Amino acid sequence: MQVAEGMVVVLEYTVHLADGTLLDSTGECGPLTVMVGSGQLFPALEDRIAGMQAGETRELSIPAAEAYGEWRQELVRRMLRDRLPPDLVLELGHDYRLKSPDGKVLRFRLLRVEGDVIEADFNRREAGQDLRAIVTVVGVRAPTPEEERRGRV
After folding, report:
1. CA dist 129 to 5, 20, 22, 41, 126, Å?
2. How far does CA 46 lie from the centroid of its chain?
3. This prediction's pTM
4. Cα(81)–Cα(150) distance, integer angstroms
5. Which end of the chain is more exposed for a tag (fewer CB within 10 A), N or C?
């Protein structure tokens, strides 16, 4: 059997960012079982494992645009320090996670502090970086009737 839409696939993988940073791996938790097309894997990875068979390993390259997106200059913003909680200790290069007044979680990396103005990067750290993955298909099978009904494993 081959990896295809609707099939249940058991995978082992290791994914690195282009800069060599380990992003994710099944190395310590063991193989991952997913249903192809259920949204458990991001589309670019699903596309690249299509047609693989049990026992097959591939080295994959996924461009930034198909992974976490391109780095966008418009997501680097300058703002007044007083828009942040007064007790928040600021460290350059540190990642922060705060809630906005409407309850949305905002994540940013502090780039610069100049007096009462800060410069924050709201891009994900992974943005703009290609991914390198080594994927092994451990097994491929048809879904059980229950898995098929739920649309996931």
Report:
1. 27, 10, 12, 18, 6
2. 14
3. 0.81
4. 48
5. N
Q: How many CB atoms lie under 10 A from the CB of residue 108?
A: 21
DSSP string computed for the chain: -B--TT-EEEEEEEEEETTS-EEEESTTT--EEEETTSSSS-HHHHHHHTT-BTT-EEEEEE-GGGTT----GGGEEEEEGGGS-TTPPP-TT-EEEEE-TTS-EEEEEEEEEETTEEEEE-S-TTTT--EEEEEEEEEEEPPPHHHHHHT--
Tens digits of pLDDT across the chain (153 residues) = 999 999 999 999 999 999 999 999 999 999 999 999 999 998 999 999 999 999 999 999 999 999 999 999 999 999 999 989 999 999 999 999 988 889 999 999 999 999 999 999 999 999 999 999 999 999 999 999 999 999 999
Q: How many CA atoms lie within 13 A of 55 on its CB side?
A: 1
Query: Cβ(28)–Cβ(22) under 8 Å?
Result: no
**Which are the contacts of 146, defined by CB distance < 8 A and separation ≥ 6?**
none
